[in-house]
């Protein structure tokens, strides 16, 4: 009875999380990773319920499924996206390779009955061992690479680290005991622990999506409460009727949400792509930047990039070369970075850093 309650709770909360993620106007890569996680959980839980507790005699179909090999990579994707890095197809495929190979082995396991009868224990041992290693190695890599100063609002993947480490601490002893004693790496509580961890994971994902939506609505009301002037957008050819003010406030809120995710730090970012993702007319986006930043869209984006560059340059230890810093802040080349930085700050990046550190030490 308890396991069916877990099945239902996981399924419903995961679906609600997917629904919330579809309401985000301009989803970031982290939002997309979390949505992928929720979709995976829905597939996983339906598969488990069907073959563990509905169809008699098919438990091996659930036990041999390699879904667990995807949770470690998803953690890495979430961490990578939380650092405002663009997830390339190559990165996604590379980390998903263990699951791909596991899926091929799983297909053989299901189709070849003789193989399943003779080597089922070895198959389970290898599969659960790889899952446990994945749940251990990925969290360790993330913890060692984590830089809280750059991702202090991306708390969700840190909770995921804890969940995977707990699962690894539970699974590894089972695998080792199974190898030593020559029996299957499972216990009466292993399924419950895994499904309860999935329940905690989907709850975190759901509340993250809810926080994204509610957190983005409140600033919008605060920002636009004083923007009810009759001719607010008329100078830009967008609107002349003050009745439409609330509608344009929603448009502005959508743009602010998009910029809050800092997609412009990706060197492959384009203004045209931003407008397409926002699904807004270009004059509205232009009006937003003119009113908020007193400049064009391109100048505003470059100004935000320079602002991030200054934050990195002000650190005591400079972690990047100028070429790497340019890429990290969304510029395609060092020359473009230097040109825009000089226009914004009237000095080179290194001169800015030297001046900042000199004043800081003098005032210390």
UniProtKB/TrEMBL annotation:
Transmembrane segments: 6-26, 33-51, 63-80, 92-112, 124-144, 156-176, 188-208
Limits of the HTH araC/xylS-type domain: 249-355
GO MF annotation: an example: sequence-specific DNA binding
Gene3D superfamilies recorded: Homeodomain-like
Recorded superkingdom: Bacteria
UniProt-listed InterPro entries: Homeodomain-like_sf (IPR009057), HTH_AraC (IPR018060), HTH_AraC-typ_CS (IPR018062)
Keywords for the protein's UniProt record, in alphabetical order: DNA-binding, Membrane, Transcription, Transcription regulation, Transmembrane, Transmembrane helix
SUPFAM superfamilies per UniProt: Homeodomain-like (SSF46689)
Pfam families in alphabetical order: HTH_18
Protein name per its UniProtKB record: Helix-turn-helix domain-containing protein
């Amino acid at each position: 009875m308890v396991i069916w309650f877990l099945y239902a709770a996981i399924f419903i909360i995961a679906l609600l999380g997917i629904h919330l993620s579809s309401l985000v106007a301009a989803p970031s890569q982290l939002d997309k990773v979390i949505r992928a996680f929720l979709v995976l959980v829905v597939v996983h839980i339906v598969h488990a319920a069907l073959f563990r507790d509905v169809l008699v005699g098919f438990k091996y179909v659930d036990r041999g499924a390699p879904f667990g090999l995807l949770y470690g990579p998803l953690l890495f994707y979430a961490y990578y996206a939380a650092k405002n890095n663009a997830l390339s197809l190559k990165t996604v495929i590379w980390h998903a390779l263990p699951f791909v190979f596991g899926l091929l082995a799983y297909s053989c396991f299901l189709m070849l009955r003789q193989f399943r009868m003779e080597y089922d224990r070895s198959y389970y041992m290898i599969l659960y061992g790889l899952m446990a290693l994945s749940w251990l190695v990925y969290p360790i890599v993330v913890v060692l690479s984590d830089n809280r100063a750059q991702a202090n609002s991306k708390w969700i993947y840190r909770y995921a680290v804890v969940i995977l480490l707990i699962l690894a601490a539970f699974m590894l002893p089972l695998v080792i005991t199974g190898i030593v004693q020559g029996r299957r790496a499972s216990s009466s509580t292993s399924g419950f622990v895994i499904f309860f961890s999935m329940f905690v994971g989907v709850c975190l994902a759901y509340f993250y999506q809810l926080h994204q939506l509610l957190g983005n609505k409140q600033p919008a009301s605060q920002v636009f409460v004083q923007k009810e002037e009759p001719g607010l957008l008329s100078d830009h050819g967008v609107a002349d009727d003050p009745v439409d003010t609330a509608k344009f406030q929603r448009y502005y809120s959508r743009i602010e949400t998009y910029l809050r995710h800092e997609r412009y730090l990706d060197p492959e970012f384009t203004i045209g792509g931003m407008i397409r993702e926002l699904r807004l007319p270009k004059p509205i986006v232009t009006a937003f930047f003119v009113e908020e930043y007193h400049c064009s869209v391109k100048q505003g984006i470059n100004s935000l990039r320079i602002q991030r560059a200054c934050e990195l340059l002000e650190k005591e230890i400079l972690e990047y070369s100028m070429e790497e810093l340019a890429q990290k802040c969304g510029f395609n080349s060092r020359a473009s970075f230097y040109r825009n930085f000089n226009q914004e700050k009237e000095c080179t990046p290194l001169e800015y850093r030297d001046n900042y550190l000199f004043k800081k030490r003098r005032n210390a």
